[in-house]
Predict the 3D structure of the following.
Amino acid sequence: MAVLINGTELAKKVKAEVRLGAEAMVEALGEEARPDMTLIVFEGDPVSRSLVAMKARDCEAAGIVPTVVELPDETTEEELFALIERLNADEKVTAILCQLPVPPHVSTKKLLNLISPEKDVDGFSARLDGDITDLAACTPAGVIRMLDEYGIEVAGKHCVVVGRSNIVGKPMAAQLLMRDATVTVCHSKTRDLASFTRQADVLIVAAGHAGLITADMVKDGAAVIDVGMNYVEGRLAGDVDFEGVSQKAAFISPVPGGVGPMTRAYLLKNALRLSAEKHGMGGTAVGSRPNE
Ligand code: NDP
């Protein structure tokens, strides 16, 4: 039976680290150095609004000041981009997030390119050829921390990532490469997915396809990280058949209670990091671990 990678507990630890870091910044530099986050959300999407409300509460609990900007769905692309440019230029604003998805009349690609990399708290603009200590996208950063905390070595190992999106699959593969893993990236056009996943010492699944990975697709003793979030009959489910795969893997992360809480925690970590960099405190406030 696999060891359960408990993202909920680990996220509490990360949030406590952020809170300590935020208070250390305030103690050293005064209240104006308290980390902040501006969260933009289109008001017509109830799921996005509740996610933003949750992120704002996370900020408050971690000593970060949230500002929520709710936009009517009729807001034009030009108006949104003008707002982002104002926030980019505003010295008081340290971290900016625009909750996805945005309405179809707004280009997600242009939007994400517009948010200044120095304020991009999601870490979506983090360079894939960056350094191990650079800002990283929250989900891959959270997954790396999960692997580290459970002593799962990736250097020299075969890591298989299922999914190649710009916000999860690709930055995940880049993070693993930076840590000297041998990385295979699979996607919807991959022929015979199981022939790749069966080779994985570490299997990271981010396809958005409930139950995609079954026990016969996993090597004995592998570490399996399930990023997927799917709603099946109203319940949250991952991309991995947890019951079956946990009989075969050495480590497994559940859904819910795995990567999701870690992504949220690393959003806060990124906010602290951007704030520390802005105030010239670098790793001092953030900690000495890679990506922190
Ligand atoms: P995308 O839809 O942008 O990307 C999905 C990727 O999976 C694509 O590269 C796609 O291939 C690939 N894929 C889809 N179906 C298959 C299949 N049957 N076999 C192999 N590959 C497949 O999603 P995201 O990357 O944004 O998110 C992935 C999942 O992770 C979603 O469930 C999402 O909700 C979840 N998620 C969870 C987070 C968390 O915190 N836990 C954070 C972010 C996302 P192709 O490129 O060929 O289309």
Observations:
- The first strand starts at residue 3 and ends at 4.
